[in-house]
Amino acid sequence: MSNVETRDYHDSLLFKKIYGYIAAGSIGNSMGELMEGYTVEERQKYWGWIDYLPPVHKIVGTRYGSERPQPSVNDRASNPFDTGLGHPPIGHEQFRVPGTTEDGEERFRILATAIIDKGGRIDIWDLARAWKNLVTPDKFGWQLGSQDQRIYYSILAGVNPWDVGRYASWPGLYGTIKMIGAVGVVNACYPEQAAQDGMELAHLKDVRGVPGNYAVEVAGAHCAGVAEALRPNATIDSVRNTAMKYLSPTPLKEYQSVQELGEKCGEDPEKFGKEMQAKYDNRQVSNAVEIFSAAHALLKMSNADPRKAIVYTVNAGRDTDCRAHTAGSLAGALSTIDAVPMEWVKTVDDAMSVNEHTTSNRTSLETTEGLYRAMKNNIERMRRVINDVDSYGF
After folding, report:
1. Which uninterrupted H or E stretch holds 57?
2. Which of 96, 147, 267, 302 has the maximum number of C-beta atoms within 10 A of its C-beta?
C-alpha cells in the first residue's frame, strides 16, 4: 500500500519519486545538524551512533557540548549588510525540536516556493524576488544566517541578481548546491536543462571563474543528477555518470578519487569518514566538491536505501547535514517515498508546521504537490513546442 494518500496522482511513480526526494532531503538536513563539523571520533564521544532525529540545544556563538568555538551566525562585525533590525543577540540560547532543519534547507524552501508560485521553471530574477518577498530581518540568527543576510540586503539594495553571488561571505562552499535541487525536480528527466538552470540560479549565492571555486558547476551537476534520478529506470550509476558530465577536469578528478575511496570502504561509513578526515585535514568542511563527492559515495554505500543513506552520512563526520541532505534526497528519489521512514517524515513536518522562523511552513507532501504541478506545467510547455515543430512535417 502506498504511503501517500488522497489524490490519484499520488500513486504515480514520478510523484512518489519526487516525494521521496523532498522528504528524505529534509530528514537528512535535520538529523545531521547537531553534529555538523565534528569528526567521527567527536561524534562517537558526545552522542554515539545517531539513527534518530535529535533535538538541538545550543548557544549561538558557541559549539554546544565542546570546548571549540563556533562563529556566530549573527556576527555583525563581519557583516556590513546587517541592519541590526530584529536579530537575536549573540550568545542567545536555541532549542530546536526534533525535525527542525537549518539554513541550507531554508534556501531550498525559498527556491522551491519560487518555482511553485511561478508554476514552472524560474530564472535568477524570479529567485531574487522570492528572497525579497519571503525573507524578513527577524528570521536571521535562527535558521538563516550571515551569508543569507548578504543575499537579502544586496537584493534590497538593488544589486543585479547575477552579481549578488560575487559578494558571498563563504564562496565555494556547499550552501549554493543545497538550495538548488528543486531545479532538478521541475526539470524531471531532463538533466541538460536542469544543469543549465542550476548554474544560472547558483549565481545568487556564488560566482564562477574564481580559481578553486567550483560551487556553480557543482550546482549544475547536482541538478542534473536530481533530474536523472527522477527518470523511471534511473540507477545510482546513471545519477553519478550524469553528474560527472558537468564537472570540469579538476573537480572531476577529485570526485572520482572520493568514489574510489568509498568503494574501498565497503559498507563502513565510519571508516569512510575517517579516511575523508585524513584526506581533507585542515580544509574547510563545507567545500562544495568534497561534500558532493562524499554524498555520492555514501549513496552508493547505502545502495540508495534512504534510511541507510541518511544514517551512514550523519555518522561519517564533517559537514553532516549537507552530505545527508544530498545523499538522502537522491536515495529518496531513486527508491521513492515508500522506502522513507514515515515516522521521520511526520517528525520533520510537525516541526515545520510550528516553526516561527522558517520562510515556508509547507509539509514535505505540500511541497511535493506544488513542485509536481510546476513540473507538469513545464512538460506541457515543452509538448506545445514539440507540436509546433512537428507541424512543419519533420
Report:
1. strand 56-59
2. 302
